[in-house]
Specification:
Radius of gyration: 23 Å
CATH class: Alpha Beta
Order of helices and strands: HEHEHEHEHHHEHHEHHEHEH
Strand content: 5-15%
Helix content: 40-55%
Length: about 270
């Protein structure tokens, strides 16, 4: 079992980096700073080859990769795990039946129906990798709608479901909030409580995007979420660019000499 899983199962918070751009160099440069890496194959600009390269970069820096697939579909789920990812994130799970389908796709028999034969895991771990994969490869289900949150207890109770992940933007949208409205304990907090309570009641891991605001991050910690996404390539690129631009413009304004006064007009008198 990896050090990541040992720490996670001991209740230690593991901070995650989200990657949406097809740039393995980001993981090579930043990945070791974090405890795990979320590779977003749903909304990121990533092909199969991009995802494979990012998983390999995670292996290089010694951090577990979690691939989010586009949708609940057995082929996507199996392929993500065949890349060698430590976990798969399945979005938009609303019902216990959908959760069972995800388990069937992500877990080997007798728990599920995942097909054996992944080239990369065999090459790296041998033909017996299926003997420990059900334990060591995590299935993370995203609950992102009022229906999904209403079924959180039933979904969390299903064997083979390892973690529940609240989708803050989608649930916010479906609760009728504008997407640029502040996410607070009052607006997002009740759904955070619902999800983590279901996790606690059934021994599952709670996953959350913490950096939607400093207060929400603090609330994640208070409630007991143990996989918290705390950074992203998008935010670091945009934030670093904006900061450098503002500092540069401020330095220019400070160091430029004042403009000379306009010359007096010529007089004919």
């Amino acid at each position: 079992m990896s050090d990541f899983l040992k720490s996670l199962r001991q209740g230690q918070i593991q901070l995650g980096l989200c990657v949406m751009y097809p740039a393995p160099g980001i993981v090579e440069r930043l990945g070791a700073d974090w405890d795990w890496v979320w590779i977003d194959g749903q909304h990121g600009t990533l092909s199969y080859s991009d995802q494979l390269a990012l998983v390999r970069a995670c292996d290089l820096v010694g951090r577990p990769a979690f691939v989010r697939v586009p949708w609940l579909e057995a082929g996507h789920i199996g392929l993500a795990l065949d890349l060698g990812a430590q976990g798969v994130i399945v979005p938009c799970i609303d019902t216990p039946e959908q959760a069972r389908r995800a388990v069937e796709a992500a877990k080997f028999p007798p728990l599920g129906k995942r097909s054996w034969g992944a080239r990369r895991p065999i090459d790296r771990h041998g033909r017996g990798y299926a003997e420990h994969a059900n334990r060591d490869n995590l299935l993370v289900l995203q609950l992102e709608t009022p229906e999904g949150l209403a079924n959180a207890e039933a979904i969390a109770a299903i064997p083979g479901v390892d973690a529940l992940f609240l989708g803050p933007d989608d649930i916010f949208l479906r609760r009728g909030f504008p997407m640029d409205a502040p996410k607070t304990r009052e607006t997002l907090g009740p759904d955070m409580v619902t999800l983590i309570r279901a996790c606690r009641n059934h021994g599952k891991i709670g996953v959350m995007v913490g950096r939607v605001s400093p207060d929400i991050f603090n609330y994640c910690v208070e409630l007991g979420y143990t996989m918290i996404v705390a950074g992203s390539d998008v935010a670091f690129l945009a934030g670093g660019s904006q900061q450098a631009l503002q500092e540069s413009r401020a330095a220019i304004q400070k160091s430029q000499p004042p403009a000379p006064p306009p010359a007096a007009p010529n007089s004919i008198y």
